[in-house]
């Protein structure tokens, strides 16, 4: 059978150094070892610039160097994304474009000549029509989306067809959600279980597309890296990068993808709950987080405008630049995920995220003390409400 596997690896800028070191040993290095020892194995890899910088800064340069070797061999295909992993449909287009360009700039710096992405992984697979327009406008050839982005009016995605946006050039891969999730949660952890689950796919033409977090193998699911090694080396499984599929599949169909994320379930989709981990209707914390996020983004943009027209002292440009760079980090999607309590809750990460947003406020020129206090009060409300409801104990399973 033909398999195209995409692994997404990323750590937020608020990650703790000791946790990063643990993930490197439990997951990243083990995945790399599997690939280095199996020259025929192929996969597509998304590594966000946020993680790349942390690897270099925290003494894990070997991971970057080995990924470069694998890219030179053609065993991995690197994709574009957004540097600090924001939910692209939930932020202004200018912010989304900036994050994508920052990701390109950072990864080009560390990966050099092997950094030449043609495909795009949207963080959390969060998609909207506007995001599709942006990705295509930036020159990417393909994007990978959740299966629920496929309009059910057209049935189910076919494995022997390349889909394109209606009237556009951007091609679309839809991941097989059921199989991807079952692997991610350890429900498929052996070759017999895998072959049983894919028995229907073996009989079909085309390519099975799976996508999951790279951290699944060894970190989230200890021991699952052994299954990955068996999967990538099995003689009856031929692996491909996603771009390699484009050269082999000739059938094309046009479709306009639906708004979606990869955290969505059928129940969520039917109810219109597009962001079930990041913006839950009626949630006690999410609306507060998004209010603070929007307020911070708007104020940084307003300060820039005031500096450009001379309303603020031009000597404050350096302060604004610090605020701007901190904002890039502060809008990562993890803060909403960890605050969701659906089912995860991580009090320290929520605290660090709100502190980062408040740091942006304090750095932004032209904001009054009263406004800074207002932002701080909102941040404290987020933290205290979470602690009141769910305490300080981490829920990560």
What would you note in describing this structure?
Helices cover 48% and strands 10% of the residues. The chain is α/β, with parallel strands linked by helices and 397 residues long. The protein has two domains: 2-271, 7-stranded beta/alpha barrel, CATH 3.20.110; 286-390, no CATH class. The strands form two sheets. Strands 1, 2, 3, 8 and 9 form a five-stranded parallel β-sheet that branches. The radius of gyration is 21 Å and the shape is globular.
Short description:
By secondary structure, the protein is α/β, with parallel strands linked by helices.
Give helix and strand order, one letter per element, not per position. EHEHHEHEHEEEHHHEHEHEHHHHHH
**From the 3D coordinates, which CATH architecture of the largest domain would you assign?**
Alpha-Beta Barrel
CATH topology of the largest domain: 7-stranded beta/alpha barrel
Largest sheet: 5 strands, parallel
C-alpha end-to-end distance: 33 Å
What fraction strand?
Answer: 5-15%
Q: What is the level 1 CATH name of the largest domain?
A: Alpha Beta
Alpha-beta content class: alpha/beta
Domain module count? 2
The pLDDT mean sits at 96
Q: How much helix is in the residues?
A: 40-55%
Uncertain residue segments: none
**Principal-axis shape:** globular
Number of helical segments with 4 or more residues:
16
Rg result = 21 Å
The count of β-strands is 10
